[in-house]
Amino acid sequence: MLMLFLVALASATLLPGGSEVWLARLWCLEQPAQALWAVATVGNTLGSLVNVALGRYARHFEGRRWFPASRQGLALAERWYLRFGEWSLLASWVPVVGDPLTVLAGVLRLPWWRAILLITLAKAARYALVLWLAEAWLAPLCQ
Is residue 38 scored above 80 in pLDDT? Predict the structure, then answer.
């Protein structure tokens, strides 16, 4: 389970990776589903909170030549975020899109408690769906 936690944590950061296969494999090995769900959810949520913290810290370097976003790009991201708001973090589980959303939440200083709540809801729902799909599709293959 420690490996699932680490993979879930790393896959939620800007590093590439996917924890769904690990979760499904451990489910096939008859690990308790609730424990798998909790470990994956906590690990992936913490990884996303690393992104939020990076976003908060990165704002200190705005305006430097090497800063990864131009002023115009940051203004566009802020407008987009203001349009869709903090609720966009419910999509933090989506591949490719979710990680930048969490960084943006940090850059725009979303209060920690809101980030934690919305990200946890998104990640918990994602892993519940993965476990449901594993049970529906993989059960015959796991025997």
Answer: yes
